[in-house]
Amino acid sequence: MISMRYHALSIGAVFLALAIGVVLGSTGLSDRLVSAVSTERDDLAGQVTQLRAQRDDLAAQQRAADEFAARVGPSAVRGALPGKSVTLVSLGGDAADVAAVSGLVGQAGGTVAGQVRLTDAVTDPARADQLRELASRLLPAGAQLPAASDTGSLAGGLIGSALLTAPNGPATNATQAQAVLAGLSAAGFAEPGATAAPAGMVVVVTGGAAQGLDAADAAATTARLASELDRRGGGAVLAGRTGSADATGAIGVVRADKASAGGLSTVDDVQTGTGRVATILALREQAAGGTGQYGSAGDAAAPAPQP
User: Fold this and answer.
1) Would you say the C-alpha torsion 239, 244, 246, 249 has a positive or negative sign?
2) Which residues have C-beta within 8 Å of that of residue 156, sequence separation ≥ 6?
3) Quick one: average pLDDT of 160-172?
4) What is the CA radius of gyration of the chain?
């Protein structure tokens, strides 16, 4: 007869066997998992090493290209802007880019007539009404603001009427120009120290893609400002850093709506030696009545205009 003690021992043996099986099975599974993870880790480590090597190679190539462009740049632009006067307007641009373009203008035979560094307040929606009021109040006598009511066009119209001279048009008044710059500076829309003199052409230097909730509006404001400056003078180039041709970059806005941008030329890699030379050659093309989209972004027509 089977006793309760026998039942208890049988059940205990079954559970013991299950426990041993679980332990043995989990040990084998754990070993396999550790082996698989170790293999995956080694593969990923190898990929990281390869990517780092590729990154370093590309960085070295970029440095070599920039060094080459810096050396040949003066020769490439020599005589490109004989007797041309150029105003440099910076809105989010890097000081090194402005300085480099300024130097190349001189080596191309041109003259930097003025430099204006606008602040982020120009693209701040919260200050749009103040900028509109200021544009109407500072507008030089006899000048007109554009029909468009956006702040980019109005700021471009105000600055253009003060600093730029249209081909075959009357010369700008240096006193009025200085008054406009002083007013913009006092209101926080321009940094102190801006210089003004009559100029026929303009380069607007900006950064990469705008960031934040108002990025699209900021990019559009910069694009419209540059487009209006182009209409006011004898040619303009909008030069930005890598990322400026993105959807939230000023150059991206221009290239997406070329009809409203008019004859404005763009360069999307002004932080490189090639981009800086392209900016000067694009100015020369503008002076001859041409326009183009240059740089390293996918929608650029070429790295630079034909020398």
Assistant:
1) negative
2) 146, 224, 225, 226, 227, 228, 229, 232
3) 76
4) 31
